[in-house]
Automatic annotation (TrEMBL):
Metabolic or biological pathway, per its Swiss-Prot or TrEMBL entry: Secondary metabolite metabolism; methylglyoxal degradation; (R)-lactate from methylglyoxal: step 2/2
One MF term in the entry's GO annotations: metal ion binding
Family of this protein: Belongs to the metallo-beta-lactamase superfamily. Glyoxalase II family.
Keyword Cell inner membrane: no
A UniProt-annotated Pfam family: HAGH_C
Cofactor: Zn(2+)
EC code(s) of this entry: 3.1.2.6
Catalytic activity line of the entry: an S-(2-hydroxyacyl)glutathione + H2O = a 2-hydroxy carboxylate + glutathione + H(+)
Chain residues that bind Zn(2+) 2: 62-63, 139, 177
Protein name: Hydroxyacylglutathione hydrolase
Binding note for cofactor: Binds 2 Zn(2+) ions per subunit.
Residues that hold Zn(2+) 1 according to the record: 58, 60, 113, 139
InterPro entries in the cross-refs: Clx_II_MBL, Glyoxalase_II_hydrolase, HAGH_C, Hydroxyacylglutathione_Hdrlase, Metallo-B-lactamas, RibonucZ/Hydroxyglut_hydro
Length: 264
């Protein structure tokens, strides 16, 4: 088994603030959530790669809009079992696994943003040379923020983020949007005295000034800066109670933060 080719991870910018994540080994590529085919086709052609699998996290058009143009006979397209998406060849849900070019991936049900949203977790990362775990989170978890509730529920989203927060701290989080600086402004409104927010904001501003992605983040970083993962911290609880939280239960704090962020 085993090619010794080093696996590479790329964030392909799409639309105004989406990323289409690509894994490749120098010959073959896999993409996650190709909302637009053009940036994928460009990246394949630039590096001389063949697309050999597609993963989808949920049904929104900015995640699936490129499927039709990328599909071809025999190309596997993995996606959520509980959503209606044209072109899925391998429907998946919680507990399912897949292997692509030696990389093991586990499927997690993470409903909330949409009813059937799934995420892909690579417990061994990109192999022995790059072993920190990797998560393709779709629109569930963003750096310093989280997805909005569309056809799922706020309770589902809370449970899904709790589930993701139990992954290893070293897990790299590949989110689908470059929302980080806007999310950090909200996080600072929630926690004006969190020093980790100040240093992380400076770090991300420097990256954006060079048009570089602020992603992937890590779960360790997110636990220090993401208010949606900090619903038991006293400052977060106090702010949320001032912004409509019914009580101090983490679920109520989370729901109030999500509402507050919607109008922020
Ligand atoms: Zn979405």
């Amino acid at each position: 088994m085993g090619s010794t080719l080093l696996m590479d991870l790329l964030a392909l910018p799409a639309f105004t603030d989406n990323y289409i994540w690509m894994l490749h080994n120098g010959r073959e590529a896999l993409v996650i959530d190709p909302g637009d085919a053009a940036p994928v086709q460009q990246a394949l052609s630039d590096a001389g790669l063949t697309l050999s699998a597609i993963l989808v996290t949920h049904h929104h058009m900015d995640h699936v809009g490129g499927l039709a143009a990328l599909q071809r006979e025999g190309l596997p397209v993995y996606g959520p079992r509980h959503e209606d998406i044209a072109g899925i060849t391998h429907p998946l849900g919680e507990g399912d696994t897949l292997t692509w070019r030696g990389l093991d991936m586990q499927v997690l049900d993470v409903p909330g943003h949409t009813r059937g949203h799934i995420a892909y977790f690579l417990p061994d990362g990109l192999g022995s040379l790059d072993p920190d775990p990797l998560l393709f989170a779709g629109d569930t978890l963003f750096s310093a923020g989280c997805g909005r509730v569309f056809d799922g529920t706020i309770e589902q989203l809370y449970d899904s983020l709790s589930k993701l927060s139990r992954l290893p701290d070293a897990t790299r989080i590949c989110c689908t949007h470059e929302y980080t600086l806007g999310n950090l402004r909200f996080a600072q409104a929630v926690e004006p005295h969190n020093p980790a927010l100040v240093s992380h904001t400076a770090h991300c501003e420097a990256l954006r000034a060079q048009s570089l992605p602020t992603l992937p983040s890590t779960l360790r970083v997110e636990k220090g800066i993401n208010p949606f993962l900090r619903c038991t911290q006293s400052d977060v609880v106090a702010s949320a109670l001032q912004h409509g939280a019914e009580d101090a239960r983490p679920q109520a704090i989370f729901a109030a933060l999500r509402q507050w962020k919607n109008r922020f």
